[in-house]
Amino acid sequence: MGNISKQEKKRINSLAVKKYRDKERLFVVEGEKSVSEFLASSFKVRKIYCTCEYGFPVQHPDITQITSSEMQQISNLKTASTVLALVETPSVEIDALPNNELLLALDDIQDPGNLGTIIRLADWFGINYIVCSLFTADAYGPKTVQATMGSLTRIKVVYTDLYAFLKSANEKNLIYGTFLEGENIYTAELSGNGIAVMGNEGKGISPEIAGLVSRKLSIPAFVNNAAESLNVATATAIICSEFRRRIYQ
Fold first, then answer.
1. What are phi and psi of 150, to 5 degrees?
2. Contact, 122 vs 147, CB < 8 A?
3. To which H or E segment does residue 45 belong?
4. Nearest Cα to Cα of residue 85 among 165, 147, 135, 31
5. Which run of H or E residues covers position 233?
């Protein structure tokens, strides 16, 4: 018990910062459910730290048992869990993205919690790929990973020049985006595939990206004097639900 070195603690704590995650090609996963999801996935779990309270039998070649106090020192949570894993960051090639599925594209989403929720929504609605602009929050940051609750194991997330990607994809896919002046999503014609673009929390879809949108959609309010806008994760849920409803209705 208590076999974690100061150097290990420093290394794990450094992974809270993106540049060190990129350098190490590692990220942190915490909590029994999330760690279990990653262990059962195609992700490579490099190392596991757990306390004596950790109740899941795990077969892994590199497990270190530490004290609850030590776990708190390396945890990104206010109240540390009983298990923490170091996981290798995967590489997702932009060329591998399919043309016959519904994809999500994120235009500079900033909040890690929103990104994590969107990844969970993609998992729920059977959307396998999310394409992110280079300035979108990091999918492998601690807050995002925690918010996905394991859904990150099933969703491929790729970061790229979003304008260049959409410009190239425009020849083969309808590109949808949400705008205040768009067509009512509940009456608009929707396809079973294409790319749904979700905009930044404060600015929405950028003018540059908006110029590539084939079909502008809106989510109508049902009362007068409603809220000015919807949270981007909430809007994503409505968009995904309506696309899927059309297929299965």
1. 95, -15
2. no
3. strand 45-50
4. 31
5. helix 232-248
CA-CA distance, 92 to 85, in Å (whole number)? 21
Structure tokens at 170: 């425009």
Distance, in Å, from the CA atom of 160 to the CA atom of 199, rounded to the nearest integer, reads: 15
CA distance 113 to 43: 22
pLDDT of 2 reads 56
Lowest-pLDDT range of 63-67, 149-153, 212-216, 244-248: 244-248
Kindly write down the DSSP assignment for every residue of 15-35, as one continuous string. Answer: TTSHHHHHHHTEEEEESHHHH
Domains and CATH numbers, the chain: 6-88 (3.30.1330.30), 94-248 (3.40.1280.10)
| Interatomic CA distance for residues 121 and 187, integer angstroms | 22
List the single range of 16-25, 58-67, 91-100 with lowest mean pLDDT: 91-100
Exposed / middle / buried, residue 55 (Cβ in 10 Å: 0-12, 13-18, 19+): exposed
What is the mean predicted confidence (pLDDT) over 153-177?
92
Tens-place pLDDT, residues 58-67? 778 899 999 9
